[in-house]
């Protein structure tokens, strides 16, 4: 995230195809010298080339959106199991391994939690934002229920103590009859009798202001409650690969300028044109609800 109140990588940030898997990572070893013998006359050149390729691969990874890889920056997301049973609540457990292969056990609190776990099916149905508990051995655990069959993406959003904020992703699978969902472009969402309107457009390569306004039965909601240090938390996922995008909130509760509704403002930067799924978590009357939007940028964008 990294944000909870952020179209951040909580934070940002959601994806519209029924399937697709991602693998990321490049391994480059030293080249052999002339005649395939290490230390041959071309050995010096080969070492330089190998180093340049490895450096280029690292630069590419550093500029990729978050959540596309299970391993990044020396940290690896390792689920204990990659299978789920639809309609059943079971503990979901995983570890974050460091560069030495040992489980990470020290994390900083980010947006009131040490770990934010986003779970969403690869067609972007069934979005969940949950918070696991950490065991002494470095194992995270949380009760998890998925309602239907399909391939799911789990995103671990965290900041290891002394390290950089990181979001890693991995696929898990729920067996059964999979029927993909379809989502039409929408700037208005309804959830539990609340209406949420999204104003603003996403533009690739620049910070875009988006404002979400919450109402119920035609009345603006002006007493939103803080959730994860803000009046709303926004996650954005890119269509096709479920790239997790970081979204930044404008203001926070108690800063003297940010009102508790009806408007919640975020600043988001998307890397490319395409389809994005946006998920806003907001809290009112002691319950967190999620409003969902489908936004298209570039050619063919429309409401």
Low-confidence stretches: 1-46, 52-60
What would you call the structural class? mainly beta
The amount of beta strand, in percent, is 35-45%
- CA-to-CA gap between the ends? 27 Å
Proportion of helical residues: under 10%
Count of strand segments? 20
Helix count, per DSSP? 1
Q: Mean pLDDT, nearest integer?
A: 83
What profile does the largest beta sheet have?
6 strands, antiparallel
Shape: globular
One letter per element, helices H and strands E, the order comes to HEEEEEEEEEEEEEEEEEEEE
Radius of gyration, CA atoms, in whole angstroms = 21 Å
Descriptive overview:
This protein has one helix and 20 strands. Helix content is 7%, strand content 37%. The chain has 303 residues and is mainly beta. Strands 11, 12, 13, 14, 17 and 18 form a six-stranded antiparallel beta sheet that branches. Strands 1-2-4-8-7 form a five-stranded antiparallel beta sheet, with no helix packed on it. The protein is globular. The protein has one helix spanning 43-63; strands at 71-72, 75-79, 83-84, 90-97, 115-121, 128-130, 133-134, 139-144, 150-158, 166-174, 188-191, 194-199, 208-216, 219-220, 233-238, 244-245, 247-249, 263-268, 275-284, 287-296. The longest helix has 21 residues, at 43-63. A hairpin with a 4-residue loop joins strand 7 and strand 8 (139-144). The two termini are 27 Å apart.
Furnish the topology, listing elements before pairings.
Blueprint: H1 43-63, E1 71-72, E2 75-79, E3 83-84, E4 90-97, E5 115-121, E6 128-130, E7 133-134, E8 139-144, E9 150-158, E10 166-174, E11 188-191, E12 194-199, E13 208-216, E14 219-220, E15 233-238, E16 244-245, E17 247-249, E18 263-268, E19 275-284, E20 287-296
Parallel strand pairs: 3-10
Antiparallel strand pairs: 1-2, 2-4, 4-8, 5-6, 5-9, 7-8, 9-10, 11-12, 12-13, 13-14, 13-18, 15-16, 15-19, 17-18, 19-20
